[in-house]
Amino acid sequence: MHRKNFLASLAAIPAFASAGVAATTLDAKAARVNGAAPPTKKLKTSLNAFSFNDPLLAGKMTISDMLDFCAEAGFEGVDITGYYFTGYPNVPADDYLYGIKRKAFRLGIGISGTGVRNDFTIADPARRAEEVKLVKSWIEVAAKLGAPVLRIFAGNQKNEGISKESVTEWMVKDIRQCVDYGKQHGVVIGLQNHNDFIQTAHQVTDIIRQINSEWLGLILDTGSYRVLNPYEEISTSLNYTVNWQIKEKIFVNGAETDTDIEKIVGMIKTSPYHGYLPIETLGQGDPKTKIMAMLAKLQNAIG
Q1: Alpha-carbon distance 178 to 87, whole Å?
Q2: Considering the entire predicted model, what is its pTM?
Q3: Is 95 exposed, middle or buried (0-12, 13-18, 19+ CB in 10 A)?
Q4: Which helix (H) or strand (E) holds 150?
Q5: Is 147 inside a domain boundary?
Q6: Residue 41 confidence class, pLDDT cut points 50, 70, 90
Q7: Position 7 in a domain
Q8: 293 — alpha (psi -120 to 50), left (phi > 0) or beta?
């Protein structure tokens, strides 16, 4: 093909409106043209560092130790929450960050994400400005680590006398600042449903739709939809999801029960999502034993 014709063929390809959806659509069209089946969805295992919360906070385990465990266990990725970096909430030195990044790379483990503990429900604008500053600082950390997504929260202040609509209004403005900054650094902002200000799929998607950016999505916490049917809420949220926290337990009609991982992964396979599926274990018991049991279930479901 002549260079002129090649460039013309490239120009005919539509720009991606959404990386996951558009790529899937384009691949499917190509497959139909070539008479082949659509490409297989690539889902990968990851571990959320909160699964080792107690030993990490107690200094009995380091991030380096956790990376070794992930490699030995067969994880493909790790989500290293910001709390476990030395000096949090202060930004770590570059040498420290790059040492973690290098070790993960040499072990063949992708850094699937990181996150901070912020609160955008605080009524005081000056304090919220500090929360925005925190998120922006850790966007820079995520970029240095090569983490594609930074997890943030809505918050959990009661704010008596202030309507939920008013809180949502200022929250949207604060998150939009973070999203714009994330875009500048190539980092997607993931808003996590956490059974706090956000309790339902409608509430989180309302915020995401208002901001309306490819650089914002949902970190879908399977254990934190506790008001309505959790599997229906997960299904409603699928198209907005940019990363996951798949937990051992889920709440059905207010009762804690084992998560049906096969069912959740089955839903994910029908969605536009490709990528990491971080698991997170909580509660009593040996974390390594709990993690390995859940990893086996996830690997089986992925197939």
Answers
A1: 22
A2: 0.87
A3: exposed
A4: strand 149-152
A5: yes
A6: confident
A7: no
A8: alpha
